[in-house]
Design a protein that fits this description.
209 residues, 8 helices, 0% strand
Length: 209
């Protein structure tokens, strides 16, 4: 006796869509594993993955009333495709695109911190030139500079600018807020700032490669 999976054209179409969704999830799982194992190139992976994601988005949109949860569909049919679920449902973009975005985000963040460090160096040096030598004027500027240098992970812990700013901050902390740097101290601090700034700029191309 022949068993029918559907009673009418609409049901038949629904089961065909289910089969297609099942196939897309399985194909994505195989593709993810092939990419992780270096069986296919990044370019091949990205092209095929984008096609599967596009098909998946179209089909899941069509089936949203019948299949409100892709995870439930996955569990119902015992598919065991965690990588595919991550790629299709959670991420929505190929792994190669995710990696490029992470690199861009990292370099953008670093660029912003570099700009902050440069600004803090210049502000501190300019303030000394304007004879702003009171402890409560100098200390916040050096603290800001030290904090921005510590945020920049491309600089080593013993970087000249970090150690010199720590020394100066420790020295200023022992003085009163209204105390002022002597002319000799101000000249030395300006020299240390300028020296640290030059070392900082010299470190960037090497650290950025």
């Amino acid at each position: 006796m022949e068993v029918k999976l559907w009673n009418d054209k609409r049901e038949r179409e629904m089961y065909e869509n289910f089969a297609e969704l099942f196939a897309i999830i399985k194909a994505t799982e195989k593709l993810e594993k092939a990419y992780v194992r270096d069986i296919i190139s990044s370019a091949e992976y990205e092209t095929e993955c984008q096609k599967l994601i596009a098909h998946f988005k179209t089909l899941s949109s069509t089936l949203k009333d019948i299949v409100p949860s892709i995870e439930r569909f996955h569990d119902t049919y015992k598919m065991d495709c965690p990588a595919a679920l991550n790629r299709l449902v959670t991420s929505g973009v190929p792994a190669t695109v995710e990696h490029r975005a992470a690199v861009v985000m990292s370099s953008t963040t670093s660029a912003a911190i570099v700009a902050e460090c440069v600004q803090n160096f210049i502000t501190a040096m300019d303030s000394l030139k304007l004879n702003m030598v009171a402890v409560d004027q100098v200390h916040p500027l050096l603290s800001d500079l030290s904090a921005s240098l510590n945020k920049l992970t491309i600089l080593p812990p013993d970087f000249e600018g970090k150690t010199k700013m720590r020394d100066w901050i420790a020295r200023l902390s022992k003085m009163g807020a209204a105390d002022e740097l002597t002319e000799q101290q101000a000249r030395q601090l300006h020299f240390d700032l300028e020296s640290s700034y030059n070392s900082f700029m010299a470190a960037l191309p090497t650290a950025g490669t």
